Amino acid sequence: MFSVKKIAESSSNNSSVVECIPPEYVYQNNNSNEDSVILDDEEAQNTTIPTIDFSQLISSNPADRSKAIQELGTACTDWGFFMLINHGVPESLREEVLRASQRFYDLPDEDRKQYQAGDIFSPIKCGTSFNVNVEKTFLWRDYLKCHVHPHFHAPSNPHGFSETIEAYCKKSREVIGELLKGISISLGQEEKYMHKVMNYESGFQMFVVNYYPRCPMPEQAMGLPPHSDHGVLTLLLQNELEGLQLLRNDTWISIHPLPNSFVVNTGDQMEIFTNGKYKSNIHRAVVNKNATRITIGTAHGPPLDDVVAPATELIREDNPPAYRAIKYKDYMSLQQSNELNKKTCLDYIRI
């Protein structure tokens, strides 16, 4: 098994085939009681999602910047999630990285299969589901993962793909760098505090393409199950199709991104660094029966060999360390070697 895309195309191209999904893709927990309620589209659109104006965050106007930093701190405390507008990443570059990702999945299987082998730390890895070696149910998702910092890796095909994602990842790092400055100040620290404590200049960055083909039975399948991200911050770009849902107060909220915006998730390393002040969020990806959904995630964290622990400056007598120290690489291995299941990896190191 290599590609959900191939399963989806064989179904849609063969009129004699009843449109259904193989039994191993039927996700049993879609409507489980523990997931509680799902807001309908009207309720979700009326839910006020935190929105950070990046132009205010980097403004030379002290009042504008102070306002944006306060809003950023509130979003990280209360939601672990926000939309980012006026971020300065050219719309043409955003569109091109989505087109380039589609071209990668339009390549013949042979061109993509060369990246199928390897362990979780292979610099370029292409696959399906999340971890087919341990999963009882497969996910309706293909992926490409590339390590892009501190050393850049990307497939050489299709033509121009590597150059496009390198340009995009550079802009992504610039945006995340400014967000970390704002977060540092919101924590009562100096501007470059997070850069220093997570060794950001040498930090790890991963570029991830999530490819969710049209699904004939979307109510029975799952793109990605409930989980939190392993890094510090994740910057998410998606095509025009929605599918991201956020768990808040035992309620699943469908996210309707603003035009030309990014979605930003705080990850588990952020929760560890801040000793639980800024919490990672639980989210999932659902699929649809109409068209392929593509998302581009850039995950940012400390160097893989750095040990992550609650920051000394944020520990007090009434706020003792809540997490055991762990090497970032070991934390990633813990998550990537198992099935995704909410925040079980973070619970593993919780004191």
Automatic annotation (TrEMBL):
Segments forming domain Fe2OG dioxygenase: 202-302
Keyword DNA repair (UniProt): no
Entries under Pfam families matching the protein: 2OG-FeII_Oxy (PF03171), DIOX_N (PF14226)
Domain of life assignment: Eukaryota
Keyword line: Iron, Metal-binding, Oxidoreductase, Vitamin C
Family, as annotated: Belongs to the iron/ascorbate-dependent oxidoreductase family.
Matching PANTHER family: OXOGLUTARATE/IRON-DEPENDENT DIOXYGENASE (PTHR47991)
Descriptive protein name: Fe2OG dioxygenase domain-containing protein
